[in-house]
Design a protein that fits this description.
- The protein is mainly alpha-helical.
- The chain has two domains: 1-65, RNA polymerase sigma factor, region 2, helix turn helix motif (Rna Polymerase Sigma Factor, Chain: A, Orthogonal Bundle); 78-145, Winged helix-like DNA-binding domain superfamily/Winged helix DNA-binding domain (Arc Repressor Mutant, subunit A, Orthogonal Bundle), CATH 1.10.10.10.
- 60% of the residues lie in helices and 0% in strands.
- It contains seven helices and no strands.
Length: 164
């Protein structure tokens, strides 16, 4: 939960507060939990909703860390790995909140599509379409492709004319 909260808040202290608030809400609502439901998605749903409600209250998106203030990668690597990590962070930041949080739940936290649908309170088809759009946009951003109109079909490069 802390890892997901950290990815949402971008600040360790805020993430810890978010996890603590979420766990307090979970304990307070423990009797309302369905016995047939899995505990992990239920906790992630509480965390996600607590974070989203905080955003609505503040009326703004959380401040991202400046690139110069970003934490060092957890693994020691060369300069190219660091640049790739920063590129990935920048690309993730450019996704919508719904797409980014859903992509992190699936890719980082390992939740199934059904669990993600319960966490975010949306239909399974919505999860699948948001993930597809998020992955496509992330791919375009990381490969330097135009992001102007994601619905426009990609144009083929002009073929060479055969001359006899």
């Amino acid at each position: 939960m802390r890892r997901y909260a950290r990815s949402l808040c971008r600040d360790a202290a805020q993430a810890d507060d978010l996890v603590q608030d979420s766990l307090a809400k979970a304990l307070a609502a423990w009797g309302q939990r369905r016995e047939d439901g899995a505990l992990r998605p239920w906790l992630f749903a509480i965390l996600h909703n607590t974070w989203a409600n905080g955003l609505r209250r503040e009326g703004r998106r959380p401040d991202g860390a400046a690139l110069d203030d970003a934490d060092e990668p957890a693994v020691s690597g060369g300069q190219f790995e660091r640049l790739e990590l920063l590129d990935m962070q920048t690309a993730l930041d450019s996704l919508s909140e719904e797409q980014r949080s859903l992509l992190l739940l699936v890719a980082v936290e390992g939740l199934s599509y059904e669990e993600c649908a319960r966490v975010q309170g949306v239909a399974l088809g919505t999860v699948m379409s948001r993930l597809t759009r998020a992955r496509d946009r992330l791919h375009r951003l990381l490969h330097g492709e135009s992001d102007a109109d994601p619905n426009r079909p990609r144009q083929k490069s002009p073929s060479l004319r055969r001359v006899k």
